[in-house]
Amino acid sequence: MTHNVAILGASGYTGAELVRIIATHPNLRIAALSADRKAGQAMGAVFPHLRHLDLPMLTKIEDIDFGDIELVFCALPHGLSQAIVRDLPRSVKVVDLGADFRLRSTEDYKRWYGLDHAAPEMQPEAVYGLTEFYREPIRQARLVAGTGCNAATVQFALRPLIKAGVIDFDDIICDLKNGISGAGRSLKENMLFAERSTDVMGYSIGGKHRHLGELDQEFTMIAGRKLEIMFTPHLVPINRGILATCYVKGEAEGIHAALAKRYADEPFLNVLPFGEAPSMGNVTGSNFCHIGVIGDRKAGRATVIATLDNLNKGSSGQAVQNANLMLGLDETEGLMLAPVFP
Ligand SMILES: NC(=O)C1=CN([C@@H]2O[C@H](COP(=O)(O)OP(=O)(O)OC[C@H]3O[C@@H](n4cnc5c(N)ncnc54)[C@H](OP(=O)(O)O)[C@@H]3O)[C@@H](O)[C@H]2O)C=CC1
Ligand SMILES: CC(=O)N[C@@H](CCC(=O)OP(=O)(O)O)C(=O)O
Question: Are residue 110 and residue 160 in the same domain, yes or no?
């Protein structure tokens, strides 16, 4: 059976990645694509790597007829999708890739994003889109909130360890590297090649990154008490990819066993043999996440490393995985393509 989908924000990085994935999906058909500045252009003109595809023109959102659309992927900037999602027909299912519905409380949203929420009544309805941990609610959901890409990577490394209680909750330090495409395609002066191509810098240091809102929300829920990790992201000169290095206190082999057990049946989450370190380059362009555990020279300490592609498993791949569940399809449909290498 074919399901008609629309992609709002198709002229951005995650929108283009959605099109790339859906192009070979056996059950999804792209019925509409929206853009803002690029409205009126052909997708293949904006993204020549997609020019072989027969796709609808990019139009303004207000020109889309949602009558025959079953599911909308919303790949719009923060703060924009809440009012748009609120006004869509209730018959349309929504996967939002942005941050507007990730936090369950209006106060938390205001604290981390500095905005009053335009659709607070919809916040409780939204299901957090970390597929491997919210699979059953996602199947039933009308609205799924895609996770932050950094937040997904950190959670894949740590959630089973917090749940199993095999690490010290008060001593978790996470250092993360991520690529430039995480900042989106709109021109930003500090993202220019001359400034980024040979530089590395940390940002939102000191517990200020907005993904801590969702990490606090999720980890506190699992731990059953307030849990606030230390977290610093760094921008590195690569196109795509996230690698989170988490320093934890606990017995390293037990930590590896807890992750291996939890992810044994997960098609996209691969726990490497004990002592092996994952590499970002081994997941590029795919919906896979690799996780490694390495013991420390000092007993009782371990390093847990998780890596994924921010534009795929960190956003658009996750979005298609969730859409598959919402539409009653096989979760892996359209997503089993191997990573690009080298
Ligand atoms: N990049 C990433 O790695 C990740 C991104 N996300 C989230 O996904 C969402 C999209 O991100 P990304 O693809 O990187 O963003 P981009 O900046 O690359 O793309 C944004 C898209 O939104 C459109 N748009 C911008 N302003 C408006 C407006 N006022 N009205 C209608 N459409 C508008 C743009 O159209 P046009 O270009 O034509 O103006 C473009 O299609 C964001 O919420 C982001 O936080 C989530 C996880 C990872
Ligand atoms: C390089 C860069 O700026 N990365 C972004 C995260 C990517 C992302 O898109 O996450 P959201 O959906 O929450 O925006 C950051 O760390 O803020």
Answer: no
Q: Count the domains in the chain.
A: 2
- In three-state secondary structure terms, 191 is helix
Q: What is the DSSP letter of 283?
A: T
CA–CA distance, 258 with 235 (Å, rounded to integer): 30
pTM metric for this prediction = 0.98
CATH number at residue 218: 3.30.360.10
| Ligand 2 midpoint to CA 313 (Å) | 14
ipTM of the complex: 0.98
Q: Both 321 and 252 in a single domain? A: no
Tens digit of each residue's pLDDT (9 = 90 or more) over 176-190: 999 999 999 998 888
Q: Are residues 277 and 290 in the same domain?
A: yes
Would you say 342 and 318 are in contact if contact means Cβ atoms under 8 Å apart? no
Q: Dihedral angle at the C-alpha atoms of 280, 282, 286, 289, nearest 10 degrees? A: -60
Q: Which of 14, 284, 308 to mutate to test the pocket of ligand 1 (most atoms within 8 A of CB)?
A: 14
The answer on 36 and 138 residing in a single domain is yes
Q: What is the enclosing helix (H) or strand (E) of 245?
A: strand 242-249
